YafY family transcriptional regulator
Amino acid sequence: MKVNRLVSIIMILLDKKRISAQELAEMFEVSLRTIYRDIDAINLAGIPIRSTSGVGGGFEIMENYKMDRKVFSTADLSALLMGLSSLSDVMRGDELVNALAKVKSFIPADNAKDIELKANQLSIDLSPWMGNRNIQADIETIKIALQKNQLLCFEYADNHGNKTVRTVEPYQLVLKNSHWYFQGYCLIRNDYRLFKLTRISNLQLQQEYFTPREYQKPQLDITDMMTTMQTTIKIRIHQSVMDGVLEYCPLEDFTPDGDEHYIVNFPFIENDYYYNNLFSFGDKCECLGPPHVRAEMKRKAQAIAALYEK
């Protein structure tokens, strides 16, 4: 079943008072059976269509449902389509297809090409190039638990790989910096926790339901805290890793050093995460200072080398 055909049928029904199944079948070059299935799908999407038999009969959208499509401007419709289309890349489900169909039903025929062009001017693809293929299935399980207030049970690994079994009341799915999390009340810790989906295994939807408690949203914006902790170090990089370094600092912090290198003022926090970021650039990056950070990079590099000398 093609979404484009469903949208087109909705637009036709909005423009015409009534149209027969035979006319629709001939228009889209499909069978009558396919048209009847399409009409059922549109009804399931929440757009009420009724049929009348006899001479002059056919399908029509119930009159009291019809709305003035001028409620949404071209910019409004473009923004809605842009957001829903991007979200459908990372969260699948009939509800998104139905939402897209409903939004598209408000597009006037004479503005359809213009709105489609504007909606396609920005593409947001939040899915990773590669990664854990089980995450999508876990997302769908969590969505069901959220909708029905069902408990979730799973194994959760901490930073050191230690696993604990958790039973959790789910409250929110979170996509942060291309990583999926969900916020819930952990019945083991008796407190709210933010769980990273890549650390979850054996996720099971329980048959036990819960009454939602007063919800506390997770603290996701730590910009102020990070700013107070950050210092600036100097690194020398090869131009081949420039794109990666630009993820952390603006181009204004780059100073050319010869034909193929740059000196960069790099934001840094003295913890394993940031040291590992520097090591991710391999031999294309050298820490120039301050001396104690350079010395720690050397110590860590020697420890890595020692692993391969055994």
